[in-house]
User: Which sequence fits this backbone?
């Protein structure tokens, strides 16, 4: 399986990082070794002093496909969960200045915790109106809604599939809202999807 991530998909997050608004989805990948599951702790890596949390809605791909039309995209994922795209912001800034890829700052081991539970798509009344938020030590840090995405689920799936074939079991991280910030030793992160706690992990 592979982890496909969408960058710069919420205008307020783009603004807080002072990035340009992209005309098409920004795509990067994480390897399977980035996954953290079943409540495993996240260990701060030695190579960064500025690891940021980025809470995201995550789509679970349910069948293989390529060159998918937007009108059929909804049939290619069957569940939605939460994930955190941990980012070594200091390292990412250095790489961006040099015009180099982001992978060292985004794809390191443990950089993609996901919720142990994914909710079936059928449980959502409106895929364009899904609320989610992240608490750090009981304080709300990030709040998002799928209606605020620059590129909605269907466009993401269609766009990605023109370049990269989707396979059953792939995960698509769909972008993060504003409020990203550094995590520190001992932090407890809790992610909520429509008010339901789905994701919880400790920083060590």
Assistant:
């Amino acid at each position: 399986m592979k982890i496909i991530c969408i960058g710069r998909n919420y205008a307020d997050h783009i603004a807080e990082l002072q990035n340009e608004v992209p005309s098409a989805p920004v795509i990067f990948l994480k390897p399977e070794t980035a996954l953290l599951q079943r409540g495993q702790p996240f260990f701060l890596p030695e190579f960064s002093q500025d690891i940021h949390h980025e809470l995201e809605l995550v789509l679970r791909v349910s069948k293989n496909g390529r060159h998918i039309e937007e009108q059929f995209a909804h049939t290619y994922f069957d569940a939605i969960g939460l994930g955190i795209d941990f980012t070594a912001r200091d390292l990412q800034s250095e790489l961006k200045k040099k015009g180099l890829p982001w992978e060292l700052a985004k794809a390191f081991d443990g950089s993609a915790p996901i919720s142990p539970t994914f909710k079936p798509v059928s449980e959502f009344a409106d895929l364009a109106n899904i609320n989610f938020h992240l608490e750090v030590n009981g304080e709300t840090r990030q709040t998002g809604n799928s209606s605020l995405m620059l590129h909605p689920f269907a466009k993401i799936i269609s766009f990605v599939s023109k370049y990269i074939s989707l396979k059953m079991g792939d995960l698509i991280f769909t972008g993060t809202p504003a409020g990203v910030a550094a995590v520190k030793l001992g932090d407890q992160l809790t992610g909520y999807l429509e008010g339901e706690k789905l994701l919880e992990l400790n920083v060590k």
